[in-house]
Amino acid sequence: IWTYLKEIDQNRLPDGLLRTDDFELKPEKNGKPIVFRTFLSGVGTEAVAVGFPEGVHAAFDSRECRWRIAWRGRFLDAMSTWDDRFCAPAEPLGEGVTDLSAAFPGPATEAEFLGFRLDEKGVPTFLYEAGGQTFEDRVEPDGKGLKRILNGEERAFPLR
Fold it and tell me: What are the residue ranges spanned by the domains of the chain?
């Protein structure tokens, strides 16, 4: 190690110190989605990223109770979550990151995140309460992209 430190700009890392870990999360074809809580760029510190085997992914902001971004291709690199809690937020690895704020607006009133449940296929349904109503909110691949399914009480509710 002393030789390395003395001649740092001329040597590579000594054997055993070179990082070879692969932290990329890869949804398996014909498998279940990956549901991963992390700090995520474009979403915030309370993101829940969902990686679908179909290669389309989305992230839910559990603080604001709304879908924030979607993208295609590769899912996420979990290094900042598993290796060092003081790294920058994770970045989607795929292409075409789309802001969903306008397409999938959140509740107009303050919302309380109640968690999520997984169905038999592993697809999460997010639960939250806003304006005295309880909502179930999920997205799933539909062959062309993502389809949103939002269930709540029969009465209309304001969106922001």
Answer: 2-151
